[in-house]
Amino acid sequence: MEETTPLNSIDANGSGHQTGTMITEGKLAVIVRSPGRTPLHLGISEPLEIGRECTGLLLDDPLISRRHLELHLDGGRVMVSDLGTTNGSTINGRPLTTACALGVVDVVAFGDSSVQLSHGTTDNSRA
User: Fold this and answer.
1) What residues contact 84, with CB distance under 8 A and at least 6 apart?
2) Could you give the CA distance from residue 40 to residue 31 in angstroms, rounded to a whole number?
3) What DSSP designation does 84 have?
4) Using one digit for the tens of pLDDT, what is the confidence trace for 55-66?
């Protein structure tokens, strides 16, 4: 079983700001994996930016942009968007060029990091 990390300190240096809540039953959630870190299980309730220098989740991955991805809810689905980055993002190996709903088997890769729906969520739809 994977260990979860509380979200009150989520940047790579152990400091930062709160951007989410721990995964709870019935909420849409994602797992964020980044080199050298315990996987983060994040409940999604409002838009969340992911990047090296952003207002959301900070990752210490030199291959990602300062503002790389945004996750948000739309009609009960977790949507993911690349924020016009230099190195881009892929979903299941294909370039992520428009906002896309995450399904249970989808993996979004960016730099050496990735995002996917948590197995605890019930959403299995695709856009």
Assistant:
1) none
2) 5
3) S
4) 999 999 999 999
